[in-house]
């Protein structure tokens, strides 16, 4: 008797491979590692199925034997294997690569489990235990959710900034821990993990670990192992923690669920929130997703009763939401990006010993450099985009392909170029602010100044200790931070977000404005927000200011419905790229020819990607959509199979299901 096993390997291949296990391997278990010869190499594979064959195995090819059975128990349990299989089918990504991406490095390398060390010190620090006292609004929601914690239910908490969503998660978690269940809390950013852990530990005595990409292999292995043996209660982690093999998971929370970092943008393009919903459903446990600015997908799910929505409408510290003032830059001409009104307001707040945050979406000094006379502009030679001026390094950088160039004194056609910066980046605002407020402590947070999590923590602590008066930064400062002494937030430029080509552009801009504004006036006094724009009559700004994010989303959802865009339909994006422009485009043209003409599926494109040439490579994309998810899933699978069969030469391709970035 022989046993045929199906093995998944860590290669970009959509099939599994059959091998023969000999009689002495008959106890081989699904989910365990084996060593097999693959091509001309020995590789580690995972057994994902097995069947007994009596008599001789019939096959066109002689199946190879398994070389070694590494484990006598699974390294991936049925639940996670099942989740990976679901994801492989849904995202059209190779199962083997998904499975391997969920495993710790030591396991991937084939090291025997009993040779792998983990930290067995418990680094949880117990704080003085405080009792949570929920306010009336929190209490009502808590009581409702408490009724639902024994089975699957999908719960959306839509709570304004500062309303106390975290305390609500903590109180519910406490309930789960009493029943010895485990909890997974997913946050979009690594830097939100330490503060969330601290807040949990103020209240609950439990073993909490964080999980994110800056942990060492050994640390990751520890969390992986402890979660699988039920030796930890709570993991607070970034998106990859959705694949941790908990032994007794009883609740998943996804905080800031609207945040695009929850979707992986490279390779395996999964959305952690969506996988969390699937995992919760399969486990029959509750999932809570929360945000002050819920994604349209999540709002829609509550409209069609796929989830239950609860609202927190008041700030915990009873301060009103900040007052937003629009400044028309056509009238109040900015000096180094700062309008007169904004400068005056900063001055007032500094006098009151309050802190100020200035938000600007772009790092570097300016968008581009241009000559006033000959109109030369700093274009990237390898991309169709501009090169950003970095004043401190005195160079030009392309944020798309990474090219760096020195600035020549006379780059254009004139005798002597008169170079001026165009647009604003964080460095230019920092420069301007330091000139205006020479005695203030000014700090800048962006990916140029903050290269690791330790540095970011330093900035956050300095901010909390009031060692910074004015903090200038990009998206990094928009997320979830709680700085009680900030009374003024200035948003330097919203205009680029108002005229984005992406259909989610307005949704994102409204989220950003609301989130950034939410950093202001959180504790004692009402905050101010100053929004600088050249388009003060833009309907988004008007609705947002008048009715807040909720009214904005109601209005904007109507437009999505009218144009049948998500969440009213589902979309898949097929991308291709090549150094030969026509090759990349031809592939998509052929796909269009072959796969359009089904009236249940709509097609846009093919077209150049928004930045069509990056680093001398041409990028194109085509979008397929349908109201019916399974019809679209089938179509996408056929497209993927077609591309694989064609094996286009010199063309790279990828598929993005539910894309949120059309770059
Ligand atoms: P959100 O995440 O909804 O923006 P937070 O959870 O950060 O709001 O809450 C805002 C502030 O109110 C925080 O400082 C938080 O500690 C405090 N807070 C909220 N609820 C409670 C509570 N029940 N007891 C004590 N403090 C609370
Ligand atoms: Zn470039």
User: What ions, cofactors and ligands are bound?
Assistant: adenosine-5'-diphosphate, zinc ion
Provide the CATH topology of the largest domain: Rossmann fold
Q: Strand share of the residues?
A: 15-25%
Whole-number radius of gyration? 27 Å
- Proportion of residues in helical segments: 25-40%
Biggest sheet: strands side by side, in what order? 8-9-7-10-11-6-12
CATH superfamily membership of the largest domain:
P-loop containing nucleotide triphosphate hydrolases
What would you call the structural class? Answer: alpha/beta
The tally of helices reads 17
C-alpha geometry: globular
The N- to C-terminal Cα distance equals 54 Å
The level-1 CATH class of the largest domain = Alpha Beta
Major β-sheet, in short?
A: 7 strands, parallel
For the record, the CATH architecture of the largest domain stands as 3-Layer(aba) Sandwich
Count of separate structural domains: 4
Low confidence ranges:
none
Q: Report the mean per-residue pLDDT as an integer.
A: 90
Quick gist of this model?
The protein is built from 17 helices and 27 strands. The protein has 663 residues and is of the alpha/beta class. The strands form six sheets. The protein has a seven-stranded parallel beta sheet, with helices on both faces. A six-stranded parallel beta sheet has the order 13-23-22-14-21-20, with helices on both faces. Strands 2-1-4-3-5 form a five-stranded antiparallel beta sheet.
């Amino acid at each position: 008797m022989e046993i045929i096993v199906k093995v998944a390997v860590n290669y970009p291949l959509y099939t599994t491979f059959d091998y023969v296990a000999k009689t002495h391997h008959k106890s081989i278990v699904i989910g365990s590692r084996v060593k097999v010869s693959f091509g001309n190499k020995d590789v580690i594979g995972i057994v994902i199925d097995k069947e007994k064959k009596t008599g001789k195995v019939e096959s066109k090819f002689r199946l190879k034997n398994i070389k070694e059975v590494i484990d006598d128990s699974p390294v991936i349990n049925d639940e996670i294997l099942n989740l990976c299989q679901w994801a492989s089918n849904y995202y059209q990504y190779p199962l083997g690569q998904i499975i391997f991406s969920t495993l710790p490095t030591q396991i991937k390398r084939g090291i025997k489990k009993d040779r792998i060390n983990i930290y067995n010190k418990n680094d949880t620090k117990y704080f003085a235990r405080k009792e949570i006292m929920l306010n009336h609004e929190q209490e009502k929601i808590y009581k409702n959710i408490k009724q639902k914690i024994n089975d699957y239910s999908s719960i959306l908490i839509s709570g304004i900034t500062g309303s106390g969503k975290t305390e609500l998660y903590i109180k519910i978690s406490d309930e789960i821990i009493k029943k010895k269940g485990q909890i997974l809390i997913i946050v979009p950013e690594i830097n939100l993990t330490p503060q969330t852990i601290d807040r949990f530990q103020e209240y609950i005595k439990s073993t909490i670990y964080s999980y994110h990409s800056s942990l060492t292999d050994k640390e990751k292995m520890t969390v992986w192992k402890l979660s699988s043996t039920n030796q930890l209660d709570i993991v607070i982690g970034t998106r990859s923690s959705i694949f941790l093999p908990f032994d007794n998971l009883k609740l998943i929370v996804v905080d800031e669920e609207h945040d695009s970092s929850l979707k992986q943008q490279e390779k395996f393009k999964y959305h952690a929130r969506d996988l969390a919903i699937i995992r919760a459903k399969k486990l029959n446990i509750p999932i809570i997703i929360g945000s002050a600015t819920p994604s349209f997908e999540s709002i829609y799910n509550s409209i069609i009763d796929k989830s239950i929505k609860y609202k927190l409408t008041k700030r915990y510290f009873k301060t009103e939401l900040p007052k937003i003032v629009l400044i028309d830059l056509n009238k109040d001409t900015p000096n180094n990006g700062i309008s007169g009104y904004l400068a005056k307001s900063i001055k007032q707040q500094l006098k009151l010993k309050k802190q100020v945050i200035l938000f600007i979406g772009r790092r570097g000094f300016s968008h581009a450099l241009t000559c006033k006379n000959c109109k030369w502009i700093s274009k990237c030679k390898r991309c169709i985009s501009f090169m950003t001026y970095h004043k401190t390094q005195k160079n030009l950088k392309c944020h798309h392909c990474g090219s760096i160039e020195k600035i020549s004194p006379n780059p254009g056609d004139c005798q002597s170029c008169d170079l001026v910066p165009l647009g604003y980046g964080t460095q230019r605002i920092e420069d301007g602010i330091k000139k205006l407020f020479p005695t203030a402590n000014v700090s800048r947070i962006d990916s140029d100044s903050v290269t690791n999590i330790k540095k970011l923590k330093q900035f956050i602590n300095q901010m909390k200790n009031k060692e910074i008066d004015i903090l200038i930064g990009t998206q990094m400062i928009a997320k979830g931070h709680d700085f009680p002494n900030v009374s003024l937030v200035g948003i330097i430029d919203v205009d680029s977000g108002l005229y984005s080509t992406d259909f989610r552009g307005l949704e994102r801009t409204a989220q950003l404005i609301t989130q950034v504004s939410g950093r202001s006036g959180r504790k004692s006094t009402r905050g101010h927000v100053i929004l600088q724009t050249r388009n003060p009559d833009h309907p988004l700004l008007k609705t947002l200011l008048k009715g807040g994010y909720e009214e904005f989303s109601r209005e904007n959802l109507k437009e999505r419905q009218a144009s049948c865009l998500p969440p009213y339909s589902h979309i898949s994006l097929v991308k291709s790229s090549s150094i030969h422009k026509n090759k990349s485009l031809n592939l998509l043209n052929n796909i269009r020819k072959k796969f359009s003409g089904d009236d249940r599926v709509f097609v846009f494109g093919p077209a150049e990607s928004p930045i069509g040439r990056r680093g001398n490579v041409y990028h194109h994309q085509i979008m397929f959509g349908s109201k019916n998810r399974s019809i679209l899933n089938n179509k996408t699978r056929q497209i993927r199979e077609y591309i694989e069969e064609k094996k286009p030469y010199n063309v790279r391709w990828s598929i993005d299901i539910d894309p949120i970035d059309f770059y």
